[in-house]
Recover the amino acids of this structure.
């Protein structure tokens, strides 16, 4: 790699396809392009945040084929052909997901920077563990750091959303 | 709540919650502008070094780079938070003073190019001897960090009230301990970002800042611009905690680079750069002496502190004063001496962090008081009740306290935690500890000398009265000030909060306000909003009186309906009256402002610690220690707060939880560590360990019924007061669980393990 | 953060991957989940000119019991694949239990067993329990396949016997008589923490006696370490509290920890003593008392 060349305009470009929130996108990326940057910069989905870029804080959590991952630690080329869900894909048109509503109702959002990642992790939890215990809820979000809430209202919201979804079934 | 308010006291959902929960909320890092460039700062790899030469030629030649700047390209004026301590340059001129100090900056077409360009800047340094400890920094022959500050003494404080020597002489028991408070960091989830652009001779800066006004002032001063040509706007902010509370190199560099390139420039920090910028909690050596009478009443306290200020002052000068001034807040004593030395070292600067200066000293006082209680055979709650602050009193250092419900807080915490059943009866390794809190509801004096009001608010009702806009300079950093002020506007106007839009934190498009620090906005911005709403209501009722043929005094307005007070079936919609008002008189507006009364004593530093009101709290924490490993499990947390009238209970409890969370993190897990060359060993979120959801328990937070006469509707603060007692409560719980007295922070598992080992060794040792 | 650019290959077979690596002659790194590799690259500790990704190679992530062979785990099985595996839970429950205490959920959905082994980080959690279970690794190279006992795989911190043109393809855990195994991880918070000390134990017990024991220590030596003297102390003896304490002290003596930002040497040594006992108790199914039983 020639470090005397400029940045993103130089270097081999790869054409990849990502299904993001149900929509097929074709984008050009470099090998070193991270999934989080494709989402935020090229697809304008800025809901996914960058808090540490080393996979320690969970602000960048998205679903990759239904599983929560840190999108800052996934190369875009590795996600070629896969399905991604970001926070923008959680609501159904203008209908908020039960989790989103529960976060609002239980004051689980302060600065909101961790919120997208939290919602994604919690969404994955409820999709395969519809009746989580408090411990299971905490385990699901243990990779999502929050500096504002102490997790109290967030755990309340996740358990409340589980109840709501249980009733809706 | 005794009063029947329409929206005050209700846990209404945050007005920005939906935007945040759908990912629509735009934070500074999300903003994009046409033709925008990206920028970063080049940092020094050395703790103390002379800059011999900076060669930017190769960096400038890299395709995509639009500008590379150093001190030559920006005003050489020094800046700083306090006019008394302007000790920092945008880029270092002659030397760098800490690893991470600012040397140059790059603007380029994409992030990757910026990083590559930074690597191509060549700097020749002459490494100088560095010093990393405040005591060493004051010693003979230590390297001088700032030429104007001999012995590296940045701030020196000597305050004396009453006569502590005399008090100690007649005391029944005097205890002297030295405590060590450690260096921690705010670590907001959102890294700093500054996006600047020029339109002609006016610059706009979108900044992650808690203080739009002060940043505007500093930018105007630095670049010799009139205030009207500087606009600072806060997008959504991902937490501040005191770390986004001063103008930064990033702000100045963005302004400079955008002028030079003629394009918007978005500057940003990575997580490790957040750590090297720092300006977090000071490391402190605290020698504390307290004398009590035979009943445990405190007769005098002598606090002799040394703070590691790092390389720059920032608002650390205020921190140095706060470290002493709030010690006499929760406890009453008539004799108090405070000596403080804030010392420069070649480490990143320390400054304000949640609880500003009061947190480590509180840990020291609470731990010492606990040991005094043990020495006297007194109960932990009893000694606190004996010495607690009472309402309508003045502290020894002349801070005036109005409302104070500490006794209720203590008794309520006692019941809710099961203290009486638990204390002394818990199984081995389990313990319960208590500490009292107290904090300002807004600093009594601004950061620079000015007669500007502290908060101003403006409300404009739209033409048909179906909506209103609240303009406030208050900054919502996540604590929910936009929501709370919206509720206040609705209450004051008699309107519906759902129909109010808040335009905030924009020095051009909202109003003047000093911003989010010292927990001031609920009280101070709140007063301005209340008065603005009151003016709207007054004008509306005037018009309504004419329309309804009733005297205005006989009318009231609530939930967007005007009604006759003693015959409420006679009512008209707000909108109808408002529209009529607009047609006859023009826009229906109201404005209000707030300036605190003159507060504090007439001694040097007497302004710091002043506030129109103080919150108080009692916090009890229960821990389980694994005595083999020293691992600390936090099993229970009870916080009972006197925040006066609670405007939004859910948000108040959220602040309480968050404050305790930070307190727990700082007490047990967090510490910024350095190597022998002044480099941070753990500038990341793997090794700077904030507690995860598995590390902290559910928390029991309660606000007692109270009323603060100096607060709007009786309200006062909660955001910082909740983190003030936590370190002390944890230390006291560990003492109760294990019998070991922990005199240094953080209270890590290894430290507990070592203390238990030493205790056992001591027990097994020959008692003779 | 800055991730330097590189050439990227995603071959479809292991053979292709190996010949690519051979051609690139030491200038390439293998990419599985990337959770270790990418953070290393972002911290500018390594700058490979090329990455050879395993993502297109089929069948590299299966977990199955193969008769006559044992448990076969593909290198690309993620930690959450291990945590949720039915067949693992039935045969060697300590393995999914170990996977569950690694990093956090997001990392576990990407990080792989192959990566955790090949990165050869002294504090890695899977190697100790795998070694205690007698695991071998299957290594694919341009000249064919070789199988190496995992215990002999590690050379030092971030160094192993794998060559630049080889790919770790899978892990085999042979059928072995074991009555119980366990891994105890001691970290500085309950999630997202590297092991300060990790102890794996696998025992063959006959009633109240231990016939055979394997004790493997992590994070306290340049590589995972068998505490052989502690093992010898246990073999053929009835399990008593004092025997466990003896084994713990022996293991503490055998380890070679360093002092770093996570803990001092002295602390780690004593934690080896404590967690050797706890791992043995777990493996032997003896309830753990949670009082301070002396330091």
């Amino acid at each position: 790699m020639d470090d005397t060349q400029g940045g993103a305009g130089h270097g081999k470009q790869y054409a990849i396809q990502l299904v993001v929130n149900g929509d097929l996108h074709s984008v050009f990326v470099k090998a070193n392009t991270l999934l989080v940057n494709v989402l935020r910069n090229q697809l304008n989905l800025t809901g996914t945040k960058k808090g540490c870029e080393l996979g320690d804080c969970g602000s960048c959590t998205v679903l990759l084929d239904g599983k929560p991952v840190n999108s800052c630690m996934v190369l875009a080329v590795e996600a070629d052909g896969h399905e991604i869900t970001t926070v923008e894909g959680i609501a159904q048109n203008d209908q908020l997901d039960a989790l989103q509503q529960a976060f609002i109702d239980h004051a689980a959002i302060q600065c909101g920077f961790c919120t997208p990642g939290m919602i994604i992790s919690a969404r994955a939890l409820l999709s395969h563990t519809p009746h989580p215990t408090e411990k299971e809820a905490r385990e699901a979000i243990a990779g999502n750091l929050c500096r504002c809430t102490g997790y109290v209202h967030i755990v309340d919201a996740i358990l409340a959303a589980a109840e709501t979804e249980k009733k809706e079934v | 709540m005794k009063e029947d308010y329409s929206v005050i006291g209700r846990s209404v959902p945050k007005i920005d919650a939906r935007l945040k929960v759908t990912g629509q909320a735009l934070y500074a890092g999300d903003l994009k502008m046409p033709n925008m460039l990206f920028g970063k700062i080049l940092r020094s790899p050395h703790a103390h070094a002379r800059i011999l030469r900076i060669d930017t030629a190769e960096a400038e030649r890299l395709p995509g780079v639009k500008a590379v700047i150093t001190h030559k390209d920006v005003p050489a004026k020094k800046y700083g938070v306090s006019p008394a301590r302007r000790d920092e340059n945008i880029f270092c001129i002659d030397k760098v003073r800490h690893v991470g100090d600012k040397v140059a900056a790059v603007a380029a077409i994409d992030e990757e190019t910026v990083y590559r360009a930074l690597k191509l800047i060549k700097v020749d340094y002459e490494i100088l001897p560095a010093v990393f400890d405040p005591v060493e920094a004051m010693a003979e022959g230590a390297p001088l960090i700032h030429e104007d500050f001999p012995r590296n003494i940045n701030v020196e404080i000597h305050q004396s009230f009453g006569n502590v020597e005399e008090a100690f002489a007649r005391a029944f028991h005097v205890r002297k301990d030295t405590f060590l408070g450690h260096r921690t960091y705010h670590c907001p989830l959102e890294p700093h970002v500054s996006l600047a652009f020029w339109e002609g001779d006016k610059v706009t800066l979108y900044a992650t800042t808690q203080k739009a006004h002060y940043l505007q002032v500093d930018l105007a001063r630095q670049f010799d611009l009139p205030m009207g040509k500087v606009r600072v706007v806060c997008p959504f902010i991902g937490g501040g905690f005191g770390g986004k509370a001063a103008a930064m190199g990033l702000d100045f560099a963005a302004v400079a680079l955008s002028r030079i390139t003629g394009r918007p420039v978005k500057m940003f920090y990575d997580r490790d750069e957040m750590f090297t910028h720092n300006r977090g909690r000071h490391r402190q050596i605290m020698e504390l002496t307290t004398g009590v009478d035979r009943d445990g009443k405190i007769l005098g306290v002598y606090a002799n502190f040394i703070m590691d200020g790092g390389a720059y002052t920032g608002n650390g000068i205020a921190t140095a004063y706060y470290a002493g001034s709030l010690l006499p807040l929760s406890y009453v004593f008539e004799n108090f001496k405070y000596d403080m030395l804030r010392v420069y070292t070649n480490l990143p600067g320390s400054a304000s962090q949640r609880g500003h200066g009061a947190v480590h000293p509180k840990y020291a006082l609470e731990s010492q008081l606990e040991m005094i209680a043990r020495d006297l055979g007194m109960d932990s709650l009893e000694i606190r009740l004996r010495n607690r602050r009472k309402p309508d009193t003045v502290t020894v250092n002349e801070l005036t306290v109005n409302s104070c419900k500490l006794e209720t807080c203590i008794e309520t915490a006692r019941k809710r935690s099961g203290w009486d059943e638990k204390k002394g009866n818990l199984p081995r390794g389990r313990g319960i500890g208590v500490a009292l809190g107290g904090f300002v509801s807004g600093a009594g004096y601004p950061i620079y000398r000015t007669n500007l009001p502290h908060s101003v608010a403006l409300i404009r009702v739209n033409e048909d009265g179906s909506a209103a806009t609240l303009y406030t300079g208050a900054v919502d950093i996540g604590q929910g000030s936009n929501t709370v002020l919206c509720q206040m506007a609705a209450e004051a106007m008699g309107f519906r909060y759902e129909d109010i839009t808040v335009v905030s934190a924009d020095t051009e498009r909202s109003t003047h306000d000093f911003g989010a620090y010292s927990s001031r906005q609920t009280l101070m911005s709140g007063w301005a909003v209340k008065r603005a709403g009151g003016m709207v209501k007054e004008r509306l009722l005037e018009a309504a009186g004419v329309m309804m043929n009733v005297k205005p005094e006989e009318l009231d307005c609530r939930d967007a309906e005007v009604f006759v007070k003693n015959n409420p079936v006679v009512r008209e919609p707000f909108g109808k009256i408002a529209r009529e008002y607009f047609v006859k008189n023009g826009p229906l507006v109201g404005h209000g402002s707030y300036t605190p009364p003159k507060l504090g004593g007439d001694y040097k530093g007497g302004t710091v610690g002043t506030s129109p009101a103080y919150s108080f709290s009692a916090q009890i924490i229960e821990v389980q220690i694994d005595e083999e490993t020293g691992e600390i499990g936090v099993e229970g947390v009870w916080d009972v707060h006197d925040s006066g009238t609670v405007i939004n209970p859910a948000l108040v409890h959220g602040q309480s939880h968050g404050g305790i969370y930070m307190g727990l993190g700082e007490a047990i897990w967090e510490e910024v560590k350095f190597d022998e060359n002044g480099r941070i060993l753990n500038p990341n979120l793997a090794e700077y360990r904030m507690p995860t959801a598995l590390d902290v328990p559910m928390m029991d937070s309660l606000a007692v019924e109270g009323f603060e006469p100096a607060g709007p509707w009786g309200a006062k603060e909660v955001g910082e007061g909740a983190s003030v007692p936590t370190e002390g409560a944890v230390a006291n719980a560990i003492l109760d669980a294990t019998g070991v007295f922990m005199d240094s922070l953080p209270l890590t598992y290894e430290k507990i393990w070592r203390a238990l080992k030493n205790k056992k060794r001591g027990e097994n040792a020959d008692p003779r | 953060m800055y991730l330097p650019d590189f050439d990227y290959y995603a071959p479809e077979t292991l053979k292709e991957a190996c010949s690519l690596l051979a051609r690139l002659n030491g200038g390439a790194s293998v990419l599985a989940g990337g959770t270790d590799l990418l953070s290393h690259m972002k911290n500018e500790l390594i700058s490979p000119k090329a990455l050879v990704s395993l993502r297109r190679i089929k069948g590299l992530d299966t977990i199955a019991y193969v008769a006559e062979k044992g448990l076969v785990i593909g290198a690309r099985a993620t930690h959450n694949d291990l945590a949720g595996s039915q067949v693992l839970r039935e045969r060697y429950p300590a393995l999914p239990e170990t996977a569950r205490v690694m990093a956090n959920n997001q990392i576990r959905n990407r990080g792989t067993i192959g990566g955790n082994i090949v990165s050869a980080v002294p504090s890695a959690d899977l190697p100790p329990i795998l070694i205690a279970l007698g695991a071998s690794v299957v290594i694919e190279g341009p000249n064919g396949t070789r199988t190496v006992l995992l215990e002999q795989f590690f050379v030092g911190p971030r160094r192993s016997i794998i060559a630049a043109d080889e790919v770790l393809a899978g892990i085999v855990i042979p059928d072995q008589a074991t009555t119980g195994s366990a891994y105890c991880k001691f970290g500085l918070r309950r999630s997202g923490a590297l092991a300060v000390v990790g102890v794996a134990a696998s025992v063959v017990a006959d009633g109240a006696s231990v016939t055979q024991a394997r004790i493997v220590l992590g994070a306290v030596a340049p590589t995972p370490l068998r505490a052989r003297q502690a093992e010898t102390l246990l073999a053929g003896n009835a399990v008593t509290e004092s025997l466990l304490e003896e084994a713990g002290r022996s293991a503490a003596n055998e380890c070679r920890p360093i002092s770093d930002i996570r803990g001092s040497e002295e602390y780690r040594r004593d934690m080896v003593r404590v967690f050797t006992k706890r791992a043995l108790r777990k493996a032997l199914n003896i309830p753990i008392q949670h009082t301070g039983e002396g330091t």
Notes: The mean pLDDT of chain B is 97. Chain B touches chain C at residues 111-112, 115-116, 270, 427-429, 625-629, 669, 673, 681-682, 686-687, 689, 691-695, 748-750, 753-754, 756-757, 760 (CB under 8 Å). The two ends of chain B are 62 Å apart (CA to CA).
